[in-house]
Amino acid sequence: MLNRRRFVVGAALIAAAVSYLVYAGIRTTSMYYFELGEFLSRREALGGETLRVKGWVRHGSVERNPSTNELRFDLARQDDTSGVPVSYRGIMPDMFAEGREVVVEGRYDGRGLAARQIMTSCPSKYEPAVDGGAPAKGS
Predict the structure, then answer these.
(1) Which of 14, 44, 63, 133 is the one with CA 20 to 30 A from 89?
(2) What average pLDDT does the chain have?
């Protein structure tokens, strides 16, 4: 009888520990994803929250300091309007460029997004190289 009680208590503790780990894992990895327009309309209420925002890198806004790995740019609409400042410290993604669509993961501090990760999207259309090695125009 004593062994059965120990087994039940042990099984309950293990089940509780596994349940907590699943809950904690889901809570830390699940993050709401905002389009830029939705973020702009709700940004005052989102201060201090970790979130993901999709937008485009505004042309002419990229500032990079290679010695400190600091990157600053504006996240804007595709037509370069309604920008939000983004600051990031880390290795710049390979496909990062002005005018490219990106997803910024970080916190909004009332002035801008403090990014902890920047994800770039791959080009949606494959363009084979022409004789000169440059992508084909108009394909």
Answers:
(1) 44
(2) 84
Intra-chain end-to-end CA distance of the chain, in Å: 77
Q: CB 72: neighbour CB atoms within 10 A?
A: 16
> How far apart (Å, rounded) are the C-alpha atoms in residues 84 and 17?
41
Q: pTM score, two decimals?
A: 0.66
Residue 103: alpha-carbon gap to chain centroid: 5
Tens-digit pLDDT profile for residues 99-125: 999 999 999 888 899 999 999 876 655
Three state DSSP letters for the chain: CHHHHHHHHHHHHHHHHHHHHHHHHHHHHCCCEEEHHHHHHHHHHHCCCEEEEEEEECCCCCEEECCCCEEEEEEECCCCCCCEEEEEECCCCCCCCCCCEEEEEEEECCCCEEEEEEEECCCCCCCCECCCCCECCCC
